[in-house]
Every structure is written in C-alpha cells, then in structure tokens.
Design a protein that fits this description.
Residues 236-256 are annotated as: Disordered. GO terms for molecular function: DNA binding; DNA-binding transcription factor activity. This is DeoR/GlpR transcriptional regulator. With 256 residues, the protein is an alpha/beta fold. The chain has helices at residues 3-17, 22-28, 33-45, 71-77, 80-91, 106-109, 112-115, 127-133, 158-164, 193-202; strands at 19-21, 50-52, 55-57, 99-102, 120-124, 139-143, 147-149, 154-156, 169-174, 178-179, 184-187, 203-209, 221-225, 231-233, 252-254. Helix content is 34%, strand content 23%. Strands 6-5-4-9-12-14-15 form a 7-stranded parallel beta sheet, with helices on both faces. The termini are far apart. The relative contact order is 0.12.
C-alpha cells in the first residue's frame, strides 16, 4: 500500500472509531508498528489525529462539548418507561452469586431496583449505581477508580482502564447512544469508549441495553459490533429497517 493511501486509511479509521491502538492499525494496514508510529507522528503534526499512549484518537472529539448537557438525572427521566422495561428484562438475566459489571448510563442504572434483593458482586464505574446499591445488604460493590466525569457521574481514564484489566465478571451490562442498522454499537464520548470495550473484554457474557429510541439513536464513535454481545434487551422488536440481523449471529433479542 502506498504511504499516502495508508495514511488516509488511518485517518478514516481513527475518525470512525474515535481511538485506535498502534497494534490494531499495524494489523489492518499490514505494516510494522514502527511504520504506523511514523505515520501517526506525521498525521499528528498536521492536526489530523492526536497521538496518545499506544495509539491515536480523533482530535475533533477534544473540542466537542459534553454530548448531553442535560446531565444524568434529566436523561434518566426521558423515556423512563421504556428504559425501566429494558432494565427489568436485563436484570432477569442475573443469577444468585453472579459477578456482574454495570456500565454507566441511565438504562443500566435503572437495573438497580431489580437487583436489590440478589446476592451478587457488582463492578462499576458509575456513581449512580454506587449510590443506588450502597445500602443493599447482600451486594458487594467493587468501584473502579479514575477521573470523575461530573455531568454523568462516571469514572474514566487510564486508572479505570487499568483497574478493569484486573477483574473478570460473569456478565457485563452496557448501554449505548445508538445502534446503526448494520449492527454497529455507538457512543458519543471518547473517554467512555475504552471503558465499554474493556467491559466486553472482561466478561464471559454480555448484554446490551437499548430502548427502541436507540435504533438508530445517535453517536459517532464505534464501540463494537453487535455480535460482540450475547443478548440485546430492548422494549420492542427492532424493525427490519432499524436493524439488519446477521443470519449467522447467535444474538438473543429480549423483548417484553
């Protein structure tokens, strides 16, 4: 591949994903990691990517405001009924003795009332989840450290990512800002994307919570393809226009 073509491809990948590690780019473009690093330095000098430890991210994300200035409490009130129904379905997957991970986000936090009486361990970077479950007698809380993102009450950054690599869970429950028709799960906040991917990496099984408003929803950062999840919990079956299922996928769709 010509150098200019490879560099254009790198910029496209970073903009599509939000952040991409050097090793992944090297594999995608059949180049050495040293070559990719030189490409990233060149692209960073022109402002097309921003170099970060181990890779590069989209510099356009640095200037974006918080994706939802309303904050966690207001977002939680929006579509509260569908979110609660999705949360109830997802909570029904949790078994006594499970170690589970709960993502940040209002739909995942809505699972907490349905978990109160279970004897489980909960790993989370969500302050809302911590507050909701702190008084539950039989729930052991493992709180991931990190930098506080005040508007959404979540912990992010390299400390959070490092802490994630030290645990394993039976089930991970993630939220999303949107799902494209091709099954790409999206988010809007660059600092949250590595946490979501980390949750998928440490889980034996995973469930995506998405009310029907998230199909397609919003988002410009790719988190993962839908086939990385075992279960999609939603409040009504997705239409063919909203989601084109992979015929080879084992994804289970939970609806009321």
């Amino acid at each position: 591949m010509l150098t200019d073509d490879r560099r254009r491809g790198i910029v496209a990948a970073v903009r599509r994903r939000g952040s991409v590690p050097v090793a992944e780019l090297a594999g995608s473009f059949a180049a050495s990691e040293a070559t990719i690093r030189r490409d990233l330095e060149h692209l960073a000098s022109g402002g097309l990517v921003r170099r970060v430890r181990g890779g590069a991210c989209d510099p356009r994300g640095d200037a974006r405001p918080e994706p939802d200035p309303r904050g966690f409490a207001q977002v939680a009130r929006d579509a509260a009924g569908p979110k609660r129904e999705v949360a109830r379905l997802a909570a029904g997957l949790v078994e006594e003795g499970d170690v589970i991970a709960l993502d940040i986000g209002t739909t995942v936090a809505a699972m907490c009332p349905f978990l109160q009486e279970k004897s489980i361990t909960v790993v989370t970077a969500s302050i809302a989840v911590v507050n909701a479950l702190a008084g539950a007698r039989d729930i052991e809380l493992v709180v991931l450290g990190g930098i506080l993102r005040p508007t959404y009450g979540s912990l992010v950054g390299s400390i959070t990512e490092s802490a994630l690599r030290q645990v394993r869970v039976d089930r991970a429950f993630l939220g999303t800002s949107g799902i494209r028709a091709d099954g790409t799960v999206l988010d809007t906040t660059p600092s949250e994307v590595p946490i979501k991917r980390g949750l998928l990496d440490i889980a034996i099984s995973s469930c995506l919570l998405a009310d029907s408003g998230k199909l397609p929803g919003t988002g410009y950062l790719e988190v993962a393809p839908l086939d990385r999840f075992d279960v999609l919990a939603t409040d009504r079956p997705p239409s063919a226009d909203a989601l084109t299922p992979d015929p080879d996928s084992d994804l289970e769709v939970l609806t009321p």
